[in-house]
Amino acid sequence: TLKKARFGRVKNNLKMGMVGLPNVGKSSLFNLMTSQSVAAENYPFCTIDPTEAKCPVPDQRFKFLCDLYSPLSKVPAVLSVTDIAGLIKGAAEGAGLGNAFLSHIAAVDGIFHLLRAFDNDAVVHVDDSIDPIRDLETISSELCLKDIDLLAAAKEKAYVEARKAQGVARAAEPKGMVQLNEVFDKIMVMLEKSIPVGNGEWTTSEVECIKEYFPLITTKPIVYLVNLTKKDFCRKRNKHLPKIAEWVKAHGGGTVIPLSVEFEEEYFTLKKDDPDAAEAFLEQCRSEFCNNEGPPVKSVLPRVVKTGYKELNMINYFTSGHDEVRAWTIYNGTLAPGAAGVIHSDFERGFIKAETVAFDDFKALCGGKPSFAGCKDAGKYRQEGKTYMVKDGDIMHFQFNVTAQKKK
């Protein structure tokens, strides 16, 4: 059996989409995660066009290399996040912004699902009361309903293509459709019970069949974000959290991250203008809400971005020099030529070899200097060929040679 990430597209530019019911704090959180601004007025459906943002992925290894090389250019890894307009009950039939929402969500590879667990009379709830479990059920069942539509259309398309390839009549049954029909039936049973496809037990061949023929929304990995008041976030207590954790566990599991948009906005504004005041604010929150007990209060936005990156099965390798230190994003499992191709297609086409050292080895052996000499002396600087699978944190240097014309 395989996890949800394995249903995903194997690409180097995957995206997370941020979804939630109207007025849960989604656009405000999105604005925080990026320097771009989208309309965040307290009004359902104000974010009609999905806005994409690129959030830098926090990485201490990247910071270490930048500090060591002091390069002219620093390019971190980024997570693409799309803000997707609010969903309401009945979206699968086109209510609210239903159909636009569902086509936008089909274009992303993973989902940040923001839930509201704070009371505030000034911010209306689309269903008039705060009930995160009801909200979870609403979005989950809407996505399953939409997948039922997609499923039937995908099966019909597969049949049309098979008949065409085999040259058989429109009414005839094409050959080789046994597994496709079995998988279709299995998926339909799940969706009709509002069970996401990603929560099923699937064999490797069934996963391949789903990836090839059934591009469904409920195969995408989900990270659940729970929006709390500043007070609840700082003291790490809220009556809804245990119920949410229970629901998530019963519905295929996943990461649940409590956060507070109210807290993050205050902290971010201070940090931008006065870092010392931002530190004082964190201390004040700890003394006011936690009696100065427990771990320090800190922003969870870095964790949100890192979790999204991980859920999409992304890793990064580094290139480093005095001109530039850069983190390149690749899909976990990429071989050296494919990793080189992220820099430029010529690197992949004319790939000769890769010279590489693991980040931890470099850090331990560089002696505080931007030099590979210590790694070479210790035998940790390696040459790798076309079958090398690049690992997270590798520092790479590619050798390539392009002379022949690209094959047509």
Give the SSE map.
Layout: E1 15-19, H1 26-33, E2 51-56, H2 60-69, E3 73-75, E4 78-83, H3 98-106, E5 110-116, H4 132-166, H5 178-192, H6 204-213, E6 222-227, H7 230-235, H8 241-250, E7 255-259, H9 261-273, H10 275-290, H11 301-311, E8 314-320, E9 324-331, H12 336-343, H13 345-349, E10 351-358, H14 359-365, H15 373-377, E11 382-384, E12 394-400
Parallel strand pairs: 1-4, 1-5, 3-9, 5-6, 6-7
Antiparallel strand pairs: 2-4, 8-9, 10-11, 10-12
Helix pairs in contact: 4-5, 9-10
Tell me what the structure shows.
This protein has 408 residues and is an alpha/beta fold. The chain is 41% helix and 17% strand. The protein has 15 helices and twelve strands. The strands form three sheets. A six-stranded mixed sheet has the order 2-4-1-5-6-7, with helices on both faces. The chain has a three-stranded mixed sheet with strand order 3-9-8, with helices on both faces. Strands 11-10-12 form a three-stranded antiparallel sheet. Helix 4 packs antiparallel against helix 5 and helix 9 runs antiparallel to helix 10 (275-290). It is flat. The model is unreliable at 36-50 (pLDDT under 50).
N-to-C order of helices and strands: EHEHEEHEHHHEHHEHHHEEHHEHHEE
Radius of gyration: 24 Å
Beta-strand percentage range: 15-25%
Q: How are the strands ordered across the major sheet?
A: 2-4-1-5-6-7
Structural category: alpha/beta
Distance between the termini: 39 Å
Helix content, binned percent: 40-55%
- Mean residue pLDDT: 85
Low-confidence stretches: 36-50
- What is the total tally of β strands? 12
